Amino acid sequence: MVVVGADVHKHSHTFVAVDQVGKRLGQLTVEATSKGHAKALHWARAQFGDELVWAIEDCRHLSARLERDLLSAGQQVVRVPPKMMAEQRRVARTRGKSDPIDALAVARAYLREPDLPLASHDEVSREAKLLVDRRESLVATRTRTINSLLWRVHELDPAHAPKPGSLDMVKHQRPLREWLATLSGVVAEMALDELDDIITLTVRIKTFDKRLRELAHRQVPTLLGLPGCGELSAAKLLGESAGITRFHSEAQFARHGGIAPIPVWSGNTAGRVRMTRSGNRQINAAIHRIALTQSRMPDALGHAYYDKKLAEGKSKTEALRCLKRRIARVVFNLLTIDHNNRQTPAQPAAA
User: Fold this and answer.
1) Below-70 pLDDT ranges, the chain
2) In this predicted model, what pLDDT tens digit does every residue of 292-322 receive, in sequence order?
3) Which CATH number fits domain 2-112: 3.30.420.10, 3.90.1180.10, 3.30.470.20, 1.10.10.10?
4) What is the pTM of this model?
5) Domain residues of the chain, as ranges?
6) Among candidates 323, 332, 285, which has minimal Cα distance to 303?
7) In whole angstroms, what is the distance from residue 209 CA to residue 59 CA?
8) Nearest-angstrom CA–CA distance, 225 and 258
């Protein structure tokens, strides 16, 4: 087996091939286009045969097209977190920083951690991720605009300041707009312009909300049955998992989401753990919301489990960590069930 490490950039990709012990075998730099990706694939096959693993630094937009081209060609692709690559480069004998050095570090990082989850070409999860990311971008833009508008309203007349968190509702937007339309001056003009932006953004966000609700009910109905998991959280988990079948076990999924505890003990402190600060923070955030909701729902199993951990002497933070790890296992199983149902739809019952 030969591992081809890739250091990706906007205009170029550098590949370094290593054998199973990390010995450097060759390198190539190509343009970051499908033609360049095909050239790299032809080079790797001609030089090293068909038994290849492509280890790519996980840089989202920079590496997405390369991943799709390699997966479409039937190649095995693994995403290596940048933090892991940086650590491997730090301990290497080669000093300095360059594209070949980084690509070599990516390949050797995979050799040190061969259980990293594989990349997959899953259109369902990709659609969910694109929709969720776009919605969150619109929400962030609306929040910035609302903050700017509130200061302008405060400058015009603090008495007309809307209630906190109310400017995403039409019943609060309309009276504010009617009042601003009666004022003159540049400040009022800018405030009115920003309010129009907020109204437009709210309509677009609601459109994405509707699409995400429909997608969640269509693709992950079993996950939606989990107490505390709403449509947006379900869509985020679907999108960020990027194909649940690429994880060999629920433990691997929990580690990928930064939910699996890691040991922090020595000597007399044996058995202590803490949550890892690495991993996919979006998966972590979604499961955190579910855990918080379940801990406050008297009828949910998560609430009983949370109380049990508190009774064992754990702090609220520690009890919530335990609950998150338990929910990660459930989420993995439910996503797997939904995936299997999409592959083999249930047959209609006989009359």
Assistant:
1) 269-271, 345-351
2) 999 998 888 889 999 999 998 888 988 998 9
3) 3.30.420.10
4) 0.80
5) 2-112, 123-219, 222-343
6) 323
7) 27
8) 24
